[in-house]
Design a protein that fits this description.
This protein is mainly alpha-helical and 174 residues long. The chain contains 8 helices and 4 strands. It has a two-stranded antiparallel sheet. A hairpin with a 6-residue loop joins strand 3 and strand 4. Helix 7 crosses helix 8.
Length: 174
């Protein structure tokens, strides 16, 4: 209830400027103490470097820096992805800014998997990463609403130290 009241105070234009919002639930202490080690930073950095190289080769800049016409040129999803995005626009009441942010995040997700085109799965994950910004939930596949297990959290910010986009992987639990 407190979270709902707080979110109610945030304006739509402010929320439109947030690319991703993922819920990471608190784990019991016993789970924390027995958790296996996470993925090492080096392989993650390599994947992010490959992703950035793909973006630079394709459009000469990171996806986060794309503007209107560039987003339309480089981030358009396939037919199934377009249909899913249209449904999300209607259900979530997305603004033009929110629509463009989903497209850029979907393009980044596709780049992380080295996919040549943005597909419905990439769009679904991008929409899912914004679900916390709205009270509505979008179905992302047959019988699947809500959290995507093991989903990657992609932040369009760049590390000042490396210049690479920041990325983290959160294990999401039901």
């Amino acid at each position: 209830e407190q979270i709902a009241r707080y979110r109610g105070k945030l304006s739509g234009p402010l929320l439109d400027r947030i690319d991703l919002l993922l819920e990471v639930p608190m784990l019991p202490v016993a789970d924390l103490q027995t958790a296996p080690s996470g993925e090492a930073s080096a392989p993650v950095r390599e994947r992010v470097a490959r992703c950035r190289a793909i973006q630079m080769a394709r459009q000469g800049k990171p996806n986060a820096s794309l503007a209107g016409a560039e987003i339309e040129a480089w981030c358009q999803p396939d037919a199934a992805g377009s249909k899913l995005l249209q449904s999300a626009i209607e259900r979530l009441g997305l603004s033009a800014r929110g629509y463009h942010r989903i497209l850029k995040v979907a393009r980044t997700i596709a780049d992380m998997s080295e996919a040549p085109a943005v597909g419905a799965a990439h769009v679904a994950e991008a929409i899912q990463s914004r679900r916390g910004l709205s009270e509505s939930r979008v179905a992302i596949g047959p019988g699947r609403v809500g959290k995507t297990p093991g989903a990657a959290r992609v932040d369009h910010g760049a590390s000042e130290e490396s210049g690479f986009p920041t990325i983290g992987v959160d294990r999401m639990h039901d």
